[in-house]
Amino acid sequence: MKAVAVFPGRARSAHLADLPEPQVESVRGERGVLVRVLRVGLDGTDKEINAGAYGTAPAGADILVIGHESLGIVEEVGPAVTELQPGDLVVAIVRRPGNSPYDAIGRADLTTDNEYFEHGISRLHGFLTERYFDSPEYLVLVPGGIGGVGVLLEPMSVVQKGIAMADEVQQRLRIWRAHRAAVLGSGTIGLLATLVLRLRGAAVTTFGLDELPYRNAEFIKQIGATYVSTRRRGLREVADGIGGFDLIFEATGFSPLVFEAMCALAKNGVLVLSSVTGGGRRIEVPADSVNLNFVLGNNTMVGTVNAAREHFEAGVRDLALSESQHPGWLEQLITHVAPGLDRFGDAFEALARAGTIKAVVEVNAPEGGALVGQAAARAAAS
Ligand code: BGC
Ligand code: ZN
């Protein structure tokens, strides 16, 4: 069975590897699920792994199969599986239990272990392969109508967790709501965060580097949010003009922005940090005013990574809501589809090009033709 793997730590080592087929006998043994992979999305994490800057092979292996943004179709289930049946679309949860107390309560996404287990990233093989075997506890059912955009569920789950963390922290305030929100970054995570906040009725301003004309800015406008290029107007300037943001979702990967964002919150605001920044950047900050803003403004800041099952499930609901309120909008985010595992290089190339939002590898085409979202299917039928 073919898979795309890297030698962790070695730059540009992504290659086609040959793996043994998953053990179908164990599927037939009780709670196993055999999944055929349909699509896998690539993101900045994959880019870093293929640059040799991130990623760890499973114990005893020298390669790591990459791919953590999956969409697959169930082929076979064991006799004790009641949650899924053959033909169901599923997305696999990325992080798996380690040893901390949080892992023990089913919240591996909150692990305090330094060595964590993430499929396609850390110590577990990923899904950029033909088939994998899993148990239903780690598979999230995607309604058939969502179709191919189900591949966006993993990044969507990351957004859902970030916003859920903000909500949980903000319960301290009893009556708080995110009326005015800012999203920093206009890549996949930024676009999905904009969508989720708009679906909740917030007025959203999304910041990015690019100047108009910019396709992502068009997409942002289509869902009723506002795009601002930081080359034109800074975050602070916009925030000062409106009295600050109730919620800021940081997803740029540029850590100095965090300190600017700390000064762009409204009273009682919350700042969500979601960028995994591996560098060693240092900057000078206006420490007194950053601190003063937080103290006098009752502000909070919460870091977030990964996602638990509940965030994937919330993500499914928002994907469906998006398809009904903004038919076809999600489909547009998938700007590159590499046809087949052996064309994974095309997806990496797309990832490096300006203009790419989400690049996916179409590992297997489902029976009956291309995977399309509900909206696209409707359009095709009419
Ligand atoms: C993944 C997360 C993961 C994080 C850190 C992200 O790209 O989407 O699931 O927890 O990287 O490894
Ligand atoms: Zn990711």
Explain how this protein is built.
By secondary structure, the chain is an alpha/beta fold. The protein has 2 domains: 2-142 and 333-381, Medium-chain alcohol dehydrogenases, catalytic domain (Quinone Oxidoreductase, Chain A, domain 1, Alpha-Beta Complex), CATH 3.90.180.10; 157-303, NAD(P)-binding Rossmann-like Domain (Rossmann fold, 3-Layer(aba) Sandwich). It has helices at residues 24-28, 44-50, 101-104, 153-170, 188-199, 215-222, 235-242, 256-261, 287-297, 309-325, 344-352, 374-381, and strands spanning 2-6, 15-18, 33-42, 64-65, 69-77, 89-92, 95-96, 117-119, 123-124, 131-134, 139-142, 180-184, 203-208, 226-229, 245-250, 265-273, 300-303, 334-339, 358-362. The strands form 4 sheets. Strands 3, 5, 6, 10, 11, 18 and 19 form a 7-stranded mixed β-sheet that branches. Strands 14-13-12-15-16-17 form a 6-stranded parallel β-sheet, with helices on both faces. Strand 18 (334-339), helix 11 (344-352) and strand 19 (358-362) form a beta-alpha-beta unit. Helix 4 (153-170) crosses helix 5 (188-199). It is globular, with a radius of gyration of 21 Å. Zinc ion binds at residues 43, 45, 68.
